[in-house]
Amino acid sequence: MNTQTLQIFEPAMCCSTGVCGPDVDTQLVQFAADIEWIKSHGVAVHRFNLSQNPDAFVKEETISNLLVSDGEACLPVILFNGQVALQSRYPERSELAELLKLNISESTSTSESSCCGGSSCCS
Protein backbone atom coordinates (compact mmCIF):
# COMPACT_ATOMS: atom_id res chain seq x y z
CA MET A 1 0.00 0.00 0.00
CA ASN A 2 1.37 3.39 -0.98
CA THR A 3 1.50 6.00 1.73
CA GLN A 4 -0.38 9.17 0.97
CA THR A 5 1.61 12.33 1.64
CA LEU A 6 0.27 15.79 2.30
CA GLN A 7 2.70 18.71 2.35
CA ILE A 8 1.47 22.06 3.61
CA PHE A 9 3.45 25.19 2.79
CA GLU A 10 2.16 28.00 4.99
CA PRO A 11 2.76 31.73 5.31
CA ALA A 12 5.01 33.06 8.04
CA MET A 13 3.51 32.49 11.50
CA CYS A 14 4.80 32.77 15.05
CA CYS A 15 4.87 28.99 15.49
CA SER A 16 4.75 25.91 13.30
CA THR A 17 0.93 25.80 13.21
CA GLY A 18 -0.18 29.36 13.85
CA VAL A 19 -2.27 28.12 16.78
CA CYS A 20 -0.59 30.33 19.33
CA GLY A 21 -0.39 33.90 20.53
CA PRO A 22 -3.17 36.20 21.72
CA ASP A 23 -5.23 36.26 18.48
CA VAL A 24 -5.56 32.65 17.35
CA ASP A 25 -7.32 32.21 14.01
CA THR A 26 -10.19 29.76 14.59
CA GLN A 27 -9.71 28.43 11.05
CA LEU A 28 -6.17 27.36 12.00
CA VAL A 29 -7.46 25.67 15.16
CA GLN A 30 -9.91 23.63 13.07
CA PHE A 31 -7.24 22.88 10.47
CA ALA A 32 -4.90 21.61 13.23
CA ALA A 33 -7.68 19.24 14.37
CA ASP A 34 -8.28 18.17 10.76
CA ILE A 35 -4.58 17.41 10.32
CA GLU A 36 -4.63 15.21 13.44
CA TRP A 37 -7.70 13.45 12.02
CA ILE A 38 -6.02 12.65 8.69
CA LYS A 39 -2.84 11.55 10.47
CA SER A 40 -4.96 9.07 12.45
CA HIS A 41 -5.89 7.55 9.07
CA GLY A 42 -2.24 6.91 8.18
CA VAL A 43 -1.62 9.95 5.99
CA ALA A 44 1.92 11.37 6.24
CA VAL A 45 1.66 15.12 6.87
CA HIS A 46 4.53 17.59 6.61
CA ARG A 47 3.96 21.24 7.46
CA PHE A 48 6.36 23.99 6.46
CA ASN A 49 6.13 27.53 7.81
CA LEU A 50 7.79 30.24 5.71
CA SER A 51 9.37 31.90 8.75
CA GLN A 52 10.64 28.66 10.29
CA ASN A 53 11.39 26.48 7.25
CA PRO A 54 12.40 28.81 4.39
CA ASP A 55 14.73 26.18 2.87
CA ALA A 56 11.76 23.86 2.24
CA PHE A 57 10.13 26.56 0.10
CA VAL A 58 13.29 26.93 -1.98
CA LYS A 59 13.95 23.19 -2.33
CA GLU A 60 10.41 22.34 -3.49
CA GLU A 61 10.44 23.56 -7.10
CA THR A 62 6.65 23.75 -7.39
CA ILE A 63 6.43 26.02 -4.34
CA SER A 64 9.40 28.11 -5.39
CA ASN A 65 7.82 28.70 -8.82
CA LEU A 66 4.46 29.63 -7.28
CA LEU A 67 6.12 32.14 -4.97
CA VAL A 68 7.96 33.72 -7.91
CA SER A 69 4.82 33.95 -10.06
CA ASP A 70 2.16 34.73 -7.41
CA GLY A 71 4.07 35.91 -4.34
CA GLU A 72 3.02 34.95 -0.84
CA ALA A 73 -0.65 35.32 -1.84
CA CYS A 74 -0.44 31.70 -3.08
CA LEU A 75 0.07 30.46 0.49
CA PRO A 76 -0.98 28.18 1.97
CA VAL A 77 -0.27 25.60 -0.73
CA ILE A 78 -1.32 22.01 -0.17
CA LEU A 79 0.59 19.36 -2.11
CA PHE A 80 -0.89 15.89 -2.28
CA ASN A 81 1.64 13.27 -3.35
CA GLY A 82 3.75 16.07 -4.84
CA GLN A 83 0.95 17.74 -6.85
CA VAL A 84 -0.77 21.04 -6.04
CA ALA A 85 -4.18 20.19 -4.59
CA LEU A 86 -5.12 23.62 -3.24
CA GLN A 87 -3.62 27.04 -2.81
CA SER A 88 -4.40 30.41 -1.21
CA ARG A 89 -6.68 28.91 1.47
CA TYR A 90 -6.98 26.11 3.99
CA PRO A 91 -9.26 23.21 3.06
CA GLU A 92 -12.32 22.11 5.01
CA ARG A 93 -12.24 18.63 6.53
CA SER A 94 -14.70 17.43 3.89
CA GLU A 95 -12.30 18.59 1.14
CA LEU A 96 -9.41 16.74 2.80
CA ALA A 97 -11.55 13.62 3.13
CA GLU A 98 -12.50 13.76 -0.55
CA LEU A 99 -8.91 14.37 -1.67
CA LEU A 100 -7.56 11.55 0.48
CA LYS A 101 -10.56 9.28 -0.12
CA LEU A 102 -11.32 9.04 3.60
CA ASN A 103 -14.72 8.37 5.12
CA ILE A 104 -15.92 11.67 6.58
CA SER A 105 -18.48 9.86 8.76
CA GLU A 106 -15.54 8.70 10.88
CA SER A 107 -14.76 12.35 11.48
CA THR A 108 -14.83 13.68 14.97
CA SER A 109 -14.08 17.32 15.55
CA THR A 110 -11.78 17.78 18.48
CA SER A 111 -11.08 20.96 20.30
CA GLU A 112 -8.48 19.23 22.45
CA SER A 113 -5.87 19.33 19.71
CA SER A 114 -2.58 20.82 20.76
CA CYS A 115 -0.40 22.52 18.21
CA CYS A 116 2.81 21.73 19.99
CA GLY A 117 2.22 18.48 21.80
CA GLY A 118 1.24 20.20 25.02
CA SER A 119 4.01 22.78 25.14
CA SER A 120 3.73 26.47 24.50
CA CYS A 121 4.12 27.55 20.87
CA CYS A 122 5.43 31.01 21.44
CA SER A 123 7.72 32.40 24.10
Strand content: 15-25%
Overall 3D geometry? globular
Rg, nearest Å: 14 Å
Give the H and E element order. Answer: EHEHHEEH
First-to-last CA distance: 41 Å
Strand elements, count: 4
- Mean of pLDDT: 83
The helix content is 25-40%
pLDDT < 50 stretches: 109-123
Count helical runs: 4
Return the structural class: alpha+beta
Main-sheet strand order equals 2-1-3-4
**Largest sheet, strands/sense/barrel:** 4 strands, mixed
How is this structure best summarized?
Strands 2-1-3-4 form a four-stranded mixed sheet. It is globular and about 40 Å long. The longest helix has 14 residues, at 26-39.
If you had to describe this structure to a student in words, what would you say it looks like?
The longest helix has 14 residues, at 26-39. This protein is an alpha+beta fold. It has four helices and four strands. The chain is globular and about 40 Å long. It has helices at 26-39, 54-59, 61-70, 93-100, and strands at 5-10, 44-49, 77-80, 83-87. A four-stranded mixed β-sheet has the order 2-1-3-4.
Fold topology:
Elements: E1 5-10, H1 26-39, E2 44-49, H2 54-59, H3 61-70, E3 77-80, E4 83-87, H4 93-100
Parallel strand pairs: 1-2
Antiparallel strand pairs: 1-3, 3-4
List keywords for this structure.
4 strands, 4-stranded mixed beta sheet, disordered C terminus, 31% helix, 123 residues
